[in-house]
TrEMBL record:
Ligand for members of the frizzled family of seven transmembrane receptors. Residues 1-34 form the signal peptide. Keywords: Developmental protein, Disulfide bond, Extracellular matrix, Secreted, Signal, Wnt signaling pathway. Residues 330-350 have a biased composition (Basic residues). Its main location: secreted. This is Protein Wnt. GO terms for cellular component: extracellular space. Belongs to the Wnt family. It is found in: Secreted, Extracellular space, Extracellular matrix. One of its GO terms (biological process) is cell fate commitment.
Length: 451
């Protein structure tokens, strides 16, 4: 009787546990559906219309929030509805425990994407791929603004990833001095308590001081890594190249930084020169990345263990000669800055230049280099291609002055189109008192269009 009673109780407990498990699964499914709206709802959020039935299905991790780069400018933009465009780890970046939820950081990141896309169009205006994006009503279903092209390992993709990373980093670093809560002032090694260090000045070298608050690119780089690098956790060559190009964009922001100084003194004299380091104009950052795009390095995946043993261990042996144990401990402490940096370093070591052996000197790409692993034909961008989200070069406007017609037009031929340009503010003059009257001028102009 006791055995039968125990069996009945165990069966009842198993049934109740199964019912509870099913109930929990239903609740989790309901919460997921509520927190992640459908593609049509996402299209309505970013201002799109109906979805195209044959649009490309691309869901690259961590890039969906790029589609909000214009929606955040609208006055009715809701940050909490935009949460569905971020992964859980990305959204946690804006909710640090010691600072709380910071909407200004989200807007700074979106502003950086918007800045990067406009600069991308300007820098690539003379190339066959002009940083073209998907139409607004296709982006929600596609999952990003570039479509399938992000899955290509070509130099154009490397430039797009690097400039977005640079835009996010530069925007957050600039906003650090204005409205971000958790962004501290970047201190220096000379006086970490006050952030001061002496600088030379033409007027008074002894009085020059580094008293300004730097643009904190270290903090901005950490936010950029959490938003861009963390979702891309694969170990194949595509993910490794993507992580390398993200880091190259952040390096471009650091390498183009400049020093800005303001003189203080009585009667216009420069008795004190207050200086700080700030992020350069994004046009300068874009020009730096455009140069790196022209010098992009083709890479391939190699064995990380073999490279680590052949290069890193040999460099350790070469550094050991003629140094004390205390100096070696200090060097080891500098090299070991945490598990994350070691992982990033090994990822970089996992890529070598194409056709090079890991043992050869200079086989590793530099951190500022843009890398690609795939080559395409010269006419890849010529014709419209819906699969790769390419509009083609037909009807593209070019210019003979900068030589873009020969580089953009695939056939090398173009036509000249005449049109009338209307200027409503022409020959303006001041009329007493107090008005400005202008004329409407119509001028004949011409433009070159690729056939």
């Amino acid at each position: 009787i006791l055995l039968e009673t125990k069996k009945k109780r165990s069966v009842q407990m198993n049934r109740s546990n199964l019912q509870m498990l099913l109930l929990v699964l239903l609740l989790v499914r309901f919460a997921a559906d509520a927190s992640h709206p459908s593609a049509a709802q996402s299209a309505a959020l970013i201002g799109g219309g109906s979805l195209h039935p044959t649009s490309v299905d691309v869901h690259l991790k961590g890039t969906r929030w790029w589609s909000l780069h214009e929606a955040y400018l609208r006055p009715d933009f809701d940050l909490f509805k935009a949460r569905s465009h971020f992964t859980r780890q990305q959204w946690a970046t804006f909710s640090a425990r010691r600072c709380g939820f910071d909407p200004a950081a989200i807007r700074a990141a979106l502003q950086g994407v918007n800045l990067a896309l406009h600069e991308c169009e300007r820098q690539m205006s003379t190339e066959r791929w002009n940083c073209s994006r998907l139409p607004q009503n296709y982006r929600a279903e596609a999952g990003n603004i570039f479509g399938q092209l992000l899955k290509k390992g070509i130099p154009e993709t490397a430039f797009a990833l690097a400039i977005v990373s640079a835009g996010v980093t530069a925007s957050i670093a600039s906003e650090c001095r204005r409205s971000l809560r958790c962004c501290p002032c970047r201190v220096t090694q000379d006086d970490p308590e006050r952030g001061l260090s002496p600088l030379r000045s033409a007027a008074s070298p002894a009085a020059a001081r580094y008293a300004g608050c730097d643009h904190n690119v270290r903090f901005a780089g950490a936010i950029s890594r959490k938003l861009l690098d963390r979702p891309e956790s694969g170990r194949d060559v595509r993910h490794l190249a993507m992580l390398h190009n993200f880091n190259a964009g952040r390096r471009a922001v650091v390498r183009t930084m400049g020093v800005k100084c303001v003189c203080h003194g009585t009667s216009g004299s420069c008795t004190h020169n207050i200086c700080w380091r700030e992020v350069a104009s994004f046009q300068k950052i874009g020009e730096f990345l455009k140069y790196q795009y022209k010098e992009a390095v083709k890479v391939e995946q190699a064995s990380p263990v073999k490279i680590y043993l052949d290069q890193d261990l040999q460099s350790r042996k070469s550094r050991r000669g003629g140094r004390s144990s205390q100096q070696l401990r200090q060097q080891r402490h500098k090299r070991r800055r945490g598990q994350r940096q070691r992982r990033r370093r090994r990822r970089r070591l996992n890529l070598v230049k194409a056709g090079r052996s890991p043992q050869q000197p200079g086989s590793l790409p530099r951190r500022r280099d843009l890398v690609y692993y795939e080559s395409v034909s010269e006419d890849f961008f010529c014709e419209p291609n819906q699969v790769w989200s390419l509009p083609g070069v037909h009807q593209r406007v070019c210019s003979i002055n900068n030589g873009s017609c020969s580089s953009i037009c695939c056939s090398g031929t173009y036509r000249i189109e005449h049109y009338k340009h209307v200027d409503n503010k022409c020959n303006c003059r001041f009329v007493w008192c107090c008005d400005v009257k202008c004329e409407t001028c119509i001028t004949d102009k011409q433009r070159k269009i690729c056939d």
